Amino acid sequence: VYESRGKVYQDMRNHELAILDFNRAIDIEPDYPDSYFLRGISKMSLKHPNDAIRDFNQALKLGSNNAGIFDGIAQCYHQLNDFERAMDYFDQAIDRQHENVEFLMHRSQSFYDVGQFEQCGQDLITALEIKPEDPQLFYKLGLCFYSDGSYKEAIAYLKKSLSCKPFPSYEPDIYYHIGIAYANLGKFHKAIGPLNECVGQCPTESVYLHERAKAFQMIEDYEQSLKDFDEVLKMEPKNAHAYFRRAFSRKALKDFEGAAEDFEFAKELDPFNPKLVVNYKKIYGVKCIVLCRP
């Protein structure tokens, strides 16, 4: 009874109450491995990886052959940034269950976090062979290609994710990465549409507004760019990069005094950044200076 209720609490993500019930289950039947495994899952979810590893190892000691134990230990080592040991346990989990999509996704995340994007992509492609219409897999694969600088592939997989109806909470980030991928390809007109979508869904997310402002600036829509920069600076009044880029929109709109104020204030906010120092004699014909890639 306690284990069953603990699993319900786990499903509700109330891991503190779940652990209390798994404790009671273990008190009643201390040699039952599943209770240790389940308690380990909750401890891992609460970011207590060392405690979770002890429970997972106890489940193994009591004779459990649950492949999820190896996946759980791997995730704990991932939390501890011990990626070598994490990979070893992910491999053991996947060796036991070759077609477990969750195990493949978890290992792909470890590959992603250490910058091994090719291996990350291979795991996700294998997972897609098992679940060919999973929007989350397409989303993660798109992010993998994005992080590897393969923007055309990233756009294709992210659009595929949208066509497969992802969770609504994922959509703004998907549109954002599509927009930035287009921007990184120099296709700023195409970037505007996806950035409009993510701004429309999350109008108070300053990063989305900032990137759209920069895209408007690159297509010389300086009025829209200025509006977005104004909104960004209401939310982040000490954002030196936003002041610096807004200065170029003001300059293009012949607000030279306002542009000069923005250039100077950006320099005050970040005085040790040489990129924010401008030569007014040379800057007249410059559309903008890109400080960093999106």
Structure description:
By secondary structure, the protein is an all-alpha fold. Helix content is 72%, strand content 0%. The chain contains 16 helices and no strands. The protein has helices at 2-11, 15-28, 33-45, 49-61, 67-79, 83-96, 101-113, 117-130, 135-147, 151-163, 171-184, 188-201, 206-218, 222-235, 240-252, 256-269. Helix 4 (49-61) runs antiparallel to helix 5 (67-79). The radius of gyration is 25 Å and the shape is elongated.
Uncertain residue segments: none
Radius of gyration: 25 Å
Based on helices, strands and strand pairing, what is the structural class? mainly alpha
Beta-strand content bin: under 5%
Any chance you could write out the topology, listing elements then pairs?
Layout: H1 2-11, H2 15-28, H3 33-45, H4 49-61, H5 67-79, H6 83-96, H7 101-113, H8 117-130, H9 135-147, H10 151-163, H11 171-184, H12 188-201, H13 206-218, H14 222-235, H15 240-252, H16 256-269
Helix pairs in contact: 1-2, 2-3, 3-4, 3-5, 4-5, 5-6, 5-7, 6-7, 7-8, 8-9, 9-10, 10-11, 11-12, 12-13, 13-14, 14-15, 15-16
Quick tags:
16 helices, 294 residues, mainly alpha, elongated, single chain
